[in-house]
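Protein entry
_____________
===
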Amino acid sequence: MKKIKEYLLKDRTPFAEGLSFKKMFLIFVIFSFLGCLYEDILFMAKNYINYGILDYSTKRGLLYLELSPIYGWGACIMVYILARKPRQKLDYFLIGSLIG
């Protein structure tokens, strides 16, 4: 067990360091989908609470995809600003609060 732990801890290089277009595009797509999913869940909950009907509406997102680009852009801006240089925890909180 000790050898396994030593093997796992010997290489401390980060998995995906830095920002690239591919990473930002992936962040954009993932958070656009999650934002659309978030809106759909809130819409369903609101309809269920107000009317007692669990209804799903496909009026959100892009024309053919379930993506909400405003959430994707927001995530990209936050990642770009917050991941450029290391900061104190309070600075991350304050800057993230101002951006969000």
